Amino acid sequence: MVSASGQVFGTIPQGQSFGEAAILKGGIRGASIRAKGDVVCKVISNDEAAELLTSFSPLLVVIMEALLLQQAMNNSIKQS
Length: 80
Fold this sequence. Notes:
Number of domains: 1
Mean pLDDT: 79
Largest sheet: none
Number of helices: 2
Helix content: 40-55%
């Protein structure tokens, strides 16, 4: 992960994911990602993520959305 000024502050290993905090309703995008080289990414829409979670258990979507909302509220309090 690279800041707007170009400083590297994190690395995402091959095969790992990012952006999960913003994928469901209630989620907020928390960072921008820039690659240092060539990458291949799989884009999963909000609807696809909800459908995938629901296929395992309808409660997963509700639980994930509640956790994302709680995380966003905690982050907002920390920034105040």
